[in-house]
Design brief:
With about 90 residues, the chain is of the alpha+beta class. Helices cover about 30% and strands about 25% of the residues. It is built from four helices and three strands, in the order αβαββαα. Strands 1-3-2 form a three-stranded antiparallel beta sheet, covered by helices on one side.
Length: about 90
């Protein structure tokens, strides 16, 4: 998982964990992969949720990365503009 994130050129990843709430399908793979010392990412900040259980962790790339726009587009994710409403 961490190798694919590096290939895409992603510099930061946010992982939220909240017990009792259905989790993002890849979180069980993503969180341990990013926490691995050899992943190329390090835990930047861990924020406990206020008023509810859970924690949000932010991982940052150890080395500078350059976004691989073509590889990201090839994933078929919708454009951000199509996801927001005004």
């Amino acid at each position: 998982a961490a190798a694919e994130i590096r290939r895409l050129g992603i510099s930061g990843v946010v992982v939220a964990e909240r017990p009792g709430v259905e989790e993002f399908a890849l979180r069980p793979l993503l969180a341990p992969a990013l926490a691995d010392p050899g992943s190329g990412y390090r835990l930047s900040v861990s924020l406990p949720h206020t008023g509810r259980t859970g924690v949000t962790r932010v991982y940052r790339a150890v080395q500078p990365v350059v976004a691989n726009a073509e590889a990201i587009r090839a994933l078929g994710l919708p454009d951000k503009a199509k996801l927001t409403s005004k």
